[in-house]
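<tokenise_the_fold>
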Amino acid sequence: MKRSDQRAEEHIELSRRYFLSLGAAGTLGLVASPLSAKGAARDAALERLVGELEYLTPPLEFRSVERGKPLPYKLPLEKRREVGLERDTWKLEVIPDAETPAAVNNPLTIEGGNAFTFADLMELGKQRAVRFLKIMTCNNIGRPLGMGLWEGVPLRDVIWRAQPVRRVRRVFYYGYHNDDPDQMFRSSLPIGRVLEDPPGWHPVILAYKLNGDFIPGVRGGPVRVIVPETYGFKSIKWLTHVVLTDLYHANDTYATESANDVDSIMKTFARFLHRPESVPAEKPIPLTGMAQVGMSGLEKVQYWLRPAGAEHPEDDPYFARAPWKDAEILGPPENWGGGLPDGKLPVGVRGFDPKSRKPRIWPMRYAMAHWAALLDPLPAGKYEVRCRTVDANGIGQPMPRPFRKSGRNAIQVLPLKVEG
């Protein structure tokens, strides 16, 4: 196994505590739902689980996929200050790629005394700050790392300060990794994506806040890139350098190290948050889960339960012809959790009506939605239960992009035992 694949495998198994941290604090409003059609007693079993959910993940409860020996944020304070990993010493250089014809008139450099500082970032943020919801997912891990409210300024606003003039095709950026070229983790984007946003998309940002507070070192602070529509490896931590290049191709670490699809936009998929491992035969079975909403949106979340080991046609590897049943997608929470004061979102979150502070569209792309279902009592025996999404194009998970290296979205299956 390659070193990069091994690192990804080490993060695949997420703890139950983490799952609970992904939920929506307080009771969520259900859309008009058959969940309540069978009586309040049945509703109560599910509502208790729904009430445990928290939508935004507290910053210190995100799962981490990290790189660096030692990890940059674990360096002694004096060293962190020296290399710019504290807010009062952070500096960003924006420079042309000397190995290509890319040209800028005003490179921002430490040597030239005009590197972009955290004070500059805060001043720019007074007029240009943007806030949006984004789920953070590693493309090699089948479950999200955490759901956040991110705040920052558009990366393009800082690039224009460097006055690029010609031969810029890509933006290459990286963070601090102990001044060791072998540890450097880098990513890149086409210059067009940085300078202009497709309709309805959020800008690529230099992020300095998560859930209303400054980003801690463990989450990539003081400043990291956040690319709204992509997997986590594009959202580089501990940012120090932006390089404008004439290269026509991606120069991401993952382009060569892990054979990943470095241009993959996030996929839509569902995962369980709660399902009982065993239940009495006379009891209904409550299920809760989350769905990552990718590029193609989200129309449905579905579940399918069958006896353990039951055969399925070999020509239907993704269970497209299985008798799936619809779960209920939960509405936006009243309490967003994540450490926000009183669980309330601040004013000015993109995609939200400024007066009502309600999302204009739900579920929101590149964010998360919760779902719930209540299964009828079953005879004693061993079963397996699956969940999947159907995107806004009517396509069931894991299609239309089932390939692992462009983001994991395999259908999840869990065992369920019904006691006689």
Summary: The helical segments are 3-10, 16-21, 40-50, 77-83, 118-128, 155-159, 191-195, 253-257. The mean pLDDT is 90. The chain has two domains: 23-56+267-419, 61-257.
